[in-house]
Specification:
Blueprint: E1 2-7, H1 16-21, E2 26-29, H2 42-54, E3 58-63, H3 69-73, H4 78-94, E4 99-102, E5 114-118, E6 124-128, H5 130-140, H6 152-163, H7 167-178, H8 190-198, H9 205-226, E7 229-232, H10 251-260, E8 266-271, H11 272-275, H12 283-290, E9 294-299, E10 301-304, E11 310-313, H13 322-338, E12 347-350, H14 370-390
Parallel strand pairs: 1-2, 1-12, 2-3, 3-4, 4-7, 7-8, 8-9, 9-12
Antiparallel strand pairs: 5-6, 6-11, 10-11
Helix pairs in contact: 4-9, 5-6, 5-7, 12-13, 13-14
Bound molecules: D-mannose.
The site of D-mannose has 14 residues, from strand 4.
């Protein structure tokens, strides 16, 4: 695995020099300043690439080239945005960058209700609390007819939770959910948010699945000629929010997508933390089934409870059996190498570290502080080193 670290660009409080000291070789980055839907020009790509090279690192993975909402809804200017998307991919390939992560989550990218949940050891973690999400949906966003989607118990429990919130808590919760976490290319004001959700009112899961399939089918000739490995990121969290379907959450979702678009350039970002939130996802089985198209790894763990709440766990703790995942990844690399596949080394980044030590005093991108991820990377490196000795 190539040890990788995400970098949000020159404004990221975690510098390229920090990343180098963490021992990573590969940078995962994007041109976040380019509005969603616009073409990334070759000069812009090259100047970002140059910054990374100057620090002695390589820009190996793009995370993400975002998908415009018109493409997800397959209306409006989706043809123009698809054309622009292909151009961006060709430009990236011409600069030697061929691994591209993206997601197909409607409206919101990854979502949490709490960004700094205090843990017993004094660090903080990202967390998702179902009552908080439901309280936001029902009583803060006031989404029309949202109450029809919850059971009486769920409704009452959310109501009780909402009653405990002070105005500051309401603001913080709203911010956490809709303002856009780092890397989410869209952030919203409360007033816009209901409109964005409304746009999906007439789309069911099958429609959205079909939109994803049609988009990828359209991209495949470009992917194959430019040798671009598209790597879809799972939904985070892996279930529907605000009554809008999500289509990359389960083993079935992966089967439907990859059967419809079998090209190996239609690849997967295997994010153990995202898939791992669902107890019905057998991570190892999902990994093994689609291993040949897994071209990017997000290794992190989550800890869930019976109610559906979850929080980020230390990388080697929580519900993800990281030993099995690292072993599966190393085995896949070995298999690729033996069969002569040039892309046998898979980029892997530690994801979502806890905020800890000096970082507790700093302004950081939630989930992307330096020390927590450095700890994660170090633990994963140790695990991988030990396992590879046994293979
Ligand atoms: C969060 C990230 C996601 C991911 C996108 C991929 O930490 O894993 O924001 O980058 O969903 O498009």
């Amino acid at each position: 695995m190539i040890e990788s670290f995400r970098w949000y660009g020159p404004n990221d409080p975690v510098s390229l020099s920090d990343i180098r000291q963490a021992g990573a070789k590969n940078v995962v980055s994007a041109l976040h300043y380019i509005p969603n839907g616009m073409v990334w020009g070759i000069d812009e790509i090259k100047s970002h690439q140059k910054l990374i090279k100057k620090a002695g690192l390589e820009w190996g993975v793009v995370e993400s080239v975002p998908i415009h909402e018109d493409i997800k809804q397959r209306n409006g200017d989706f043809e123009k945005y698809t054309k622009n998307y292909k151009k961006t991919l060709e430009n990236l390939a011409s600069c030697g960058i061929v691994t591209v992560c993206y997601n197909f989550m409607p409206v919101l990218d990854w979502t949490r209700t709490h960004l700094y949940k205090p843990l017993e050891d004094g660090s903080t973690a990202l967390a998702f609390q179902v009552d908080a999400m439901r309280a936001f949906d029902l009583f803060i966003l006031n989404r029309p007819k949202a109450e029809n989607e919850y059971s009486v118990e769920e409704f009452n429990s959310a109501k009780k939770y909402h009653k405990t919130l002070k105005i500051n808590d309401v603001n913080r919760l709203t911010e956490s959910i809709i303002a856009g976490l780092p890397g989410a290319e869209e952030g919203y004001a409360l007033s816009q948010f209901n409109d964005c959700i409304k746009a999906y009112k007439h789309l069911n899961k099958k429609d959205l699945q079909q939109h994803l399939i049609l988009f990828l089918k359209d991209l495949v000739p470009t992917l194959e000629s430019s040798r671009i490995q598209m790597c879809i990121h799972p939904d985070d969290p892996p279930f529907s929010l605000f009554g809008i379907p999500r289509v990359v959450s389960t083993a079935d979702d992966l089967d439907v997508f990859f059967e419809a678009v079998p090209s190996l350039y239609n690849g997967l970002t295997f994010c153990t933390g995202s898939f791992g939130v669902r107890p019905d996802n057998d991570l190892l089985a999902m990994f093994t089934k689609h291993a040949s198209r897994i071209n990017f790894l997000h290794f992190r763990s989550t800890l869930r409870d019976q109610m559906g709440n979850f929080q980020e766990a230390n990388h080697l703790e929580g519900d993800v059996d990281m030993y099995s995942m690292v072993k599966a990844a190393l085995k896949e690399e070995f298999k690729r190498k033996s069969s002569g596949r040039a892309d046998w080394v898979i980029p892997m980044r530690p994801d979502h570290g806890h905020q800890m030590l000096d970082d507790l005093q700093k302004i950081t991108n939630p989930g992307y502080s330096a020390i927590g991820r450095l700890r994660g990377l170090a633990e994963l490196r140790g695990l991988a080193t030990a396992i590879s000795r046994t293979l």
